[in-house]
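Data deposition worksheet. Section B asks for the primary sequence of the deposited chain exactly as it was used as input, without tags or linkers unless they were present during the calculation. Section C holds the resulting structure in token form. Section D is free text for depositor observations; keep each observation to a single sentence. Incomplete worksheets are returned to the depositor.
Section A, Depositor: J.P.
Section B:
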Amino acid sequence: MDPKEEVIRLTEALNEANYCYYVLDDPTMQDYEYDRLLRRLEELEAAHPELAAPDSPTRRVGGMALSQFEKVEHPVPLESLQDVFSLEELAEFTDRVAQSVAAPEYTVEPKVDGLSVALEYVDGVFVRGATRGDGRIGEDVTENLRTVRSIPMKLENAPHRLIVRGEVFMPKSVFAKLNEAREEAGESVFANPRNAAAGSLRQLDPKIAAKRRLDILIFNLQLCEGRDFATHSETLDYLRSLKFKVIPYTLCTGQGEIDAQIAAVDENRGTLSYDIDGAVVKLNDLSARQKLGSTAKFPRWAAAYKYPPEIKETVLREIVVQVGRTGVLTPKAVVDPVRLAGTTVTNATLHNQDFITEKDIRIGDTVRIRKAGEIIPEILGVVPEKRPADAVPYLLPTCCPVCGAPVERDEDGAATRCTGAECPAQLSRNIAHFVSRDAMDIDGLGDAIVEQLIQSGHIQSPADLYFLTLEQLSSLWKKGDKAPKKLLASIEASKENDLSKLIYALGIRQVGAKAGKVLAQAFGTLDALMEADEERLTQVPDVGAITARSIVSWFRSGQSRHMVERLRQAGVNFVSKVEITDRRFEGKTFVLTGALSRFTREEAEEKIELYGGKASGSVSKKTSYVVAGEAAGSKLRKANELGIPVLNEEEFLEMLQ
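Section C:
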């Protein structure tokens, strides 16, 4: 097939699959098939960049990172709504409208708790997206909005210019998984889905925004050249016909109908995939809206009814400590069953020791509990007057409840972690890190295979990979498959890796791939590194006191020593193979920015280190040179500001030769 025709066909098929999945919630294509077609489209666009369409689904994964967001002036202001907190206040609003509008009709819509944005289309093509800001001036977040799969990149039969307004949100399920992953990693959790959505949409790196799986509901037509509409509901139906994901609405004529619909939205909020904090009541007639106009702050034709937060009391019976994949100890409160936001709650997260201490939470306490963002049960505080006389302050255990290894608190955070190198709770993650490209680079060990090996009892430690047999691996594949032999060969080949890869693969806190190289060069053997004390370690360039303590602590652990000895028995290389004979870059620090054409970023860094230099990720006064490729960004600007010498790729190659 002609490449142009194939690109068009693939783009249309994948965009239709996206629409069915993300807007209609009715998948028409298997994930495997979607991924296969997307990979083919990526290959074609790489070979023929001129064929990539503006609405190509490949643009959904995020482009290059930005240095800042540009300001955008909204052609039509994005007004905010007046909040009302009781049905009596809402009745006052409808009474005022009824004084000017005969037999008014209203729409009642759920009030999504997210971030308001405007989407602009020219000739059916999405050209710009901006945050609300102050209603008149917002921020250009176009690249991040391209990653929201439910936003159409191209519209059929659209007017010359169209601007719509919607609410970007993080689905409840995505929010729960994101916070769970952040908590496991010892990172601060988001307070609610709105904060998570706002933080994600304002990421300077669109790739991060893409991973957050944001969604949107369109709730207003701001501008539509060449078309007139009589009612708001008519505009929503029109936008739905253009394949936008539109907010659900109900038409109501009297106060009784409005009140009943507000109650119905509240009753069903637990079934929604998104978080809401109220219901919006809008006059449906657009000409009547114009007649009513707006105050200095709000339109006179709409109001936002805010639901009161649901907070209840219950008794905390037990605190259970779970160990996450990253070794973080997470305390969970077990409470007497209580009904919240439509579901029965029996436990709540306690985050970490600081959270427990700050709120003085004790077993036996009566606690005030709510659902954060209507999703995650959260303890707001205790009721001191109901505290039992024998209740004592709670402290996390000093040993891991899973493997018994000592626990340590992060020097730079609130997380408490298990230090066990062979802790079962961390095993799958530790192995994934151990076999990764920058570590031992063992190809063919996907998550599913690792889980099967763990479940079968074949591996209890990353070191056990080197004792796997062909018979054990063959049981995981169909008879005659060559994958087991290839995997075994990859495991065997990794034994010859340089010491730097092994040091990084061990998963010592604070020790990244670059630190692994520095330590391998400084000590020469793993045994020498194992015996080094903190004073000796801090003499190594770029190894600070925290990293030194982390290294010493890791090698003192019985589980770590056991794993190292198993690796030794397997014949894994413990010696540095990198011999620096040419030190032309000694004492020099290079920073790479932009895209290089002759080699990858990793290859360039290896060249620098091979000649005794250092590759850094940030520009400072200590930087010797900045190597700038195509599309160099903020690092190049900072180098120019500090007067750091800047090399193009040809000049860098000359230095290497």
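Section D:
The first helix runs from residue 3 to 22.
Residues 180 and 363 are 23 Å apart (CA to CA).
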